[in-house]
Fold this protein.
Amino acid sequence: MPVLAILAGLFFPDKGVSPNAEDIFTLYVLIFAMALVVFIGVQGSLIWFLFKFKARRGRVAAQIHGNTRLEIGWTVGAAVVLVFITVVTFIKLPGIKNPPASDIDASGNRVAANAFFASTDQKAPPKGATLNITVDGQQYIWRYQYPPQGDKTVFAYEEMVVPLGMTVILRITSDDVAHSWWIPALGGKMDAVPGYVNKTWFKATKVGTYRGQCAELCGRNHANMTARVRVVPFDQYQAWFDREAAGIKLARDEGAKQRAEINKQQSTTQTP
C-alpha cells in the first residue's frame, strides 16, 4: 500500500480520506491490476511470437488455418475478465453511493459506526447525526449553506468547514450554468445543474484541508473556481460555526440599521 500511496495522483486517483473515496481508489486499483495482467499477457505473447516466428532465410512460414482451443481460450478469458470487473464494481458501488452513519453524534460524542447498506438510489444514512449542506455553484465560486442551529444561520464561500467523523450530505445545485463539485480526496464528482438538485456525501476520517475545483467548463474563469474543505474536530467546528453566525448576524443588524437611517434621511428630504 505505501507504493500505491506514492502512485496516487500519478497513475491512480488521490488516496481518499472518506469511505466512498477509498472504495473508488480500491476499485480503480483492482481494474488497473486486471488490465495490467491482460496487457502484459497480450504484449508478451506478441513479442515472443515476433522472435519465435520471425522470417529466416530459406524458411517458409507454416500455413495455419485456426486453432480452436486457442480461440475458445481467449474468448472465455475475456468473459472472465468482464465478469470479474462487473462483480467487483457491484460489490463496491453501494459503499460509494450510499452514506454510512456518522462516527459522532450531534454533540460531537463518539458513537459506534454502522455498516454500509446496498441500494439502487441514495438513501438517507442510518439513524444518527448528519450535516446537510447545500452546495450552490455560481460563476465562479462555491456557496455553502449550513442548516440553522436555533436562530443561528451560517453560509460561507470557497471554504467548507466540517467536523471530523460526521457524515456530510451534500445537496448540489447551480444558480447559472452547469458546474461540477469535486474534491478528489473526498469521493467522486457530482454535477451542479441549474434547476436540479444532485446529492452526494463524504465522511472525513482525517483532519486536514482538502482541495479541488469545478470539474465542468463553466466559463472563462472556470480554472479559478476552486473548492476547499477543511476538516476539524467537532469542538473547533462548533466554535467556527458560532463565530460565523455572530458575524453574519452583526452584518445583517448593521445593514438593517443603515437602511433605516437612509429611509429616515429620504423621508426628511422629501417632506415639504
Q: What stands out?
A: The first strand starts at residue 130 and ends at 138. The chain has four helices and ten strands.
